[in-house]
């Protein structure tokens, strides 16, 4: 089996902590780091604090930064990043400013400011950065193991994690397949995070670098996982078919010593996976069912199941989509990309959990062998499904995926899928929709999303929505009536039908997995939405930090 990666699955940016001793001059610290730029992350309050600016800048540069504020060039707003030459006043060629917003900036602001700073550095060809860690609260020293004097402040380690994550993600570019020669693009190579001994305290007066090693390791794992999911989502459909995705899943599993099983089209039929078989049979590229097992405890119990939609291209099948924008359907395997990306975080951090990952993958194509509206198919569970719309295929393959995960031992299940366009009507491309049969599970994942800086909003799960899926000729139908009311809710509840009594949560990334244009800290194309949420949920970073 060819084990070459489809996309890069590591991050080459060196990220490390440098400790500034009390009384040590800024020049000496910067000279020791050898940076191209000093990066200052500033709140609006700090921008107005001349003494704070002079803590790192000579009088002339500090005055120029204040003048930039007066001229309206830089107000330390979140999302603002500006650069100016140091003109030999510092032992680096540039000063880069990135705004943190209001005075009490939290972890999300640190992450976002990191993204904007890294992007600004890339745009200016700055390969090596020195970035003093921002103060946690005005006038307060931050304990690396606890909180600042401000009772509402987020623990320092959580903020450092968020900042490092943002810097690593902001320092990445979308790969290109262009054959024409292009000027080489400078890469971000190294970031030194400078911890001022006067502002940060390590336990027992020890090394700040050692105290922050774990959040930096977690941040790198989360960033690698997210960037991998983004890049995999962006792979063109002719380069990523179900068998290719299965080979890539096997490669990722092998890298971390996880067991991987791939069922081909014959095995899919013999296992009774009628949903996946029906969706995939219209394509020249046959379907695959992928499962990956991670065992982090001595006994195989308390198993969490994750199921990801792996439709490598979706034409809609016989219920053909409109051609405008159909190229986005390379992203219809975004759920699978999230889970394979997540395995990079799991494999690096090795949480003490047991996990089964299931990815049903197929192409949804129109042909003489494709499934049709009006068909009745039998699922792995034995239930029958009336096909109303072949463009509602993701839920059909996920029904078999959920059933397979239960067979492999899953005691709770979360599925991730670019399931519906209807979720865009509710949330645009801003938030991921959720629907569940277990409020406690839903609450855990929504809380993890808040820590990750990702937006998830639950839908209701009322009996009337289940009734909309009732069929006259089968156990359930795969789409509601012509008006498509509550499309995101009923699409999710179709999958939940196959979860039965098993605690289950559905995440609809139909609006968040892909963006047509860069927006804020999110890139154009694949976003990797929900990688960090699931990583926070499964790796429980707040407990280890």
Architecture overview:
With about 550 residues, the protein is an alpha/beta fold. The chain is about 35% helix and about 20% strand. The chain contains 19 helices and 22 strands. Strands 9, 10, 11, 12, 13, 16, 17, 18 and 20 form a nine-stranded mixed sheet that branches. Strand 14 and strand 15 form a beta hairpin. Helix 15 (about 440-450) packs across helix 18 (about 530-540). The longest helix is centred in the middle third of the chain and has 21 residues, at about 215-235. The two termini are about 40 Å apart. About 55% of the residues are buried. The model is unreliable at about 140, about 145-155 and about 540-545 (pLDDT under 50).
Fraction of helical residues? 25-40%
Average pLDDT, to the nearest integer? 92
Rg over alpha carbons: 25 Å
User: Uncertain regions: pLDDT < 50 for 5+ in a row?
Assistant: 138-142, 145-153, 541-545
N-end to C-end Cα span: 39 Å
The dominant shape is: elongated
Reported for the largest beta sheet, the result is: 9 strands, mixed
Enumerate how many helices there are, as a single number: 19
Task: Please state the structural category.
Answer: alpha/beta
Strand residues, percent: 15-25%
Number of strands: 22
